[in-house]
Write a structure and sequence with these properties.
Layout: E1 11-17, H1 27-38, E2 42-49, H2 53-65, E3 71-75, H3 86-93, E4 96-97, H4 99-113, E5 123-127, E6 130-135, H5 139-153, H6 163-166, H7 172-175
Parallel strand pairs: 1-2, 1-3, 3-6
Antiparallel strand pairs: 4-5, 5-6
Length: 177
């Protein structure tokens, strides 16, 4: 971190993907909401959707089109079972995938859960000037992703580089004439 930069809050939407959870039971989504607020960011919107690829992709596209949302965090649906379709929905929307996000998440997870980290398909990408991150549905995984990766990369003061400083340029290709 460097003290010469001021913190810039970003607007974050949180989507929980689950066939069974309600907002009241959504510990992973609430963990993300609490952490993003504690870091000084703004909760733009929060929803729960069932594990339906088309519906998830549609919600992601809608939020990417909203100029009041800078970042989308999803939790749930990143595993290997037949109903786990969040990663595919994300990839339906991405313009660019942030390949290293999944790699770094796996490294962080290995320190906590060992080789079981191989079962996560956490992913990140960019679409329409918005960052998207698909996190596992466990509260521990959400804590790890936020505490070890996202809290730093979503902080303009983090050096040598961070996601916030390039946020204004993510959609520059769409503005060229």
């Amino acid at each position: 971190m460097t003290s010469s930069r001021e913190f810039i809050p970003v607007r974050i939407a949180v989507l929980t993907v689950s066939d069974t959870r309600t907002i009241a039971e959504d510990k992973s989504g609430q963990t993300l909401v609490d952490r993003l607020r504690d870091a000084g960011h703004h909760l733009a919107e929060r929803k729960i959707l069932r594990d339906e690829r088309a519906q998830i992709a549609e919600q992601l596209r809608n939020w990417c089109a909203d100029p009041e949302i800078d970042v989308i965090l999803t939790t749930g649906g990143t595993g290997l079972t037949g109903r786990d379709v969040t990663v595919e929905a994300h990839r339906d929307v991405y313009e660019k995938e942030i390949d290293a996000f999944g790699t770094v998440f796996t490294i962080v997870s290995m320190q906590k859960i060992g080789t079981s980290a191989i079962q996560s398909r956490a992913t990140g990408g960019v679409a329409n000037g918005t960052y998207l991150f698909a996190l596992p549905g466990s509260t521990g995984a959400c804590k790890d992703a936020w505490d070890e990766i996202l809290v730093k990369q979503l902080d303009y003061r983090h050096m040598p580089c961070n996601f916030v400083e390039i946020l204004p340029r993510l959609d520059e290709h769409q503005r060229r004439k």
